[in-house]
Amino acid sequence: LPFILAAMSAIHLLFLHQTGSNNPLGLNSDSDKIPFHIFYSMKDIIGFIILLSALILFCLLCPNILIDPDNFLPADPMVTPSHIKP
Hints:
Blueprint: H1 2-19, H2 36-61
Keywords: Electron transport, Heme, Iron, Membrane, Metal-binding, Mitochondrion, Mitochondrion inner membrane, Respiratory chain, Transmembrane, Transmembrane helix, Transport
GO biological process, one term: electron transport chain
Domain Cytochrome b/b6 C-terminal region profile: 26-86
């Protein structure tokens, strides 16, 4: 069954590549096409830069927001934390 699914997927991609995905009549319409490399590559790079910048700002401006509050308590070797039972 996996080989049949792989073969059907390959055939589907072959026919899809030949006729185009948004072309039910089979007509050659080059005027409606958008170049992939320039448009989508730049769109993905800009999105990646925006998300990476947001992550860096979050990590630099709010470094302690995701830390457990117990980490801010001063250490006392003579007192066991309440959640640890002997």
